[in-house]
Write a structure and sequence with these properties.
This protein is of the alpha/beta class. The chain folds into two domains: about 120 residues, 3-Layer(aba) Sandwich (Rossmann fold), CATH 3.40.50.2300; about 100 residues, Winged helix-like DNA-binding domain superfamily/Winged helix DNA-binding domain (Arc Repressor Mutant, subunit A). Helices cover about 40% and strands about 20% of the residues.
Length: about 250
């Protein structure tokens, strides 16, 4: 791969979280540094097993995945993600392939990757392809505009909670947590993921305790009986989920 020149950080407004999966330590470090300077949050993994552990408690906005890795290769890992439940099924994937291996590109697309980039590549092309994938996936996510549960409606675009025609004010943290849970479509979201995606930069234990406090406050606002929640439920040992009405896709 060509040497990665560090960009000037012109896209610092972006907060998407990218997972870089490559067994080459040098490439992982260079990609991580470059993408960080582009304004992204970046995590890294040396192989599919390590990537799966990272994804157990965190949801990533995009995965940069190398084809050739020891153990499970990138194509098999991509196929495994596409066969799982959300958010793994729809996680956007940019696959890195050898320039001469057309079969890897075809196999990757068949496995469900969103795009591929042949090595060696220019860093700017990588940044442009990532930005393009994120634009497409953000448009898909935007189709989930309203979540309804019980007497409440939550507008995911405006970040507004309503009970019938009455506005129910939320704090910024409560709004972000509710948005994450609504996007999960009833799926379980771990406490660690809620803490990280809601922007809590403290250590994990403190961040997760903060999530518990915010969840308790949300329940007092949306549940008739917060001690026996019908909508915002705890899944013991795993996290939280928001049970919404079937019409929440519109």
């Amino acid at each position: 791969m060509t040497s990665l020149a560090i960009a000037d950080g012109g896209s610092r407004a972006l907060a998407s979280h990218i997972l870089v999966v490559d067994d080459d330590k040098r490439i992982r470090m260079l990609l991580s540094r470059f993408l960080t300077n582009e304004g992204y949050r970046v995590s890294a993994a040396a192989n599919a097993e390590e990537a799966a552990l990272r994804m157990r408690d965190l949801a990533f906005d995009l995965i940069v995945l190398d084809v050739m890795m020891p153990g499970e290769n990138g194509i098999r890992f991509a196929g495994r993600l596409r066969s799982r439940e959300e958010p793994f099924h729809s996680a956007p994937i940019l696959m890195l392939t050898a320039r001469s291996e057309i079969k890897d590109r075809v196999a990757g697309l068949e496995a469900g990757v969103d795009d591929y980039l042949a090595k060696p590549f220019e860093p700017r092309e990588l940044a442009l392809r990532i930005a393009s994938i994120l634009r497409r996936t953000s448009k898909r996510s935007a189709t989930i505009k309203m979540a309804r549960f019980g007497d409440y409606s939550f507008d995911l675009v405006r970040g507004e909670l309503w009970r019938g025609g009455d506005f129910a004010p939320l704090t910024t943290r409560e709004c972000e947590l509710l948005r994450i849970l609504a996007f999960a479509r009833g799926g379980v979201v771990s406490r660690e993921r809620l803490a990280r995606r809601a922007g809590d930069d403290r250590d994990n234990a403190v961040g997760e305790r903060s999530v518990d406090v915010e969840i308790a406050r949300l329940r007092r606002k949306i549940e008739k009986d917060p001690s026996a929640p019908r909508h915002l439920q705890t899944v013991r040992g795993r996290g939280y989920r928001l049970l919404t009405d079937p019409a929440d896709d519109h």
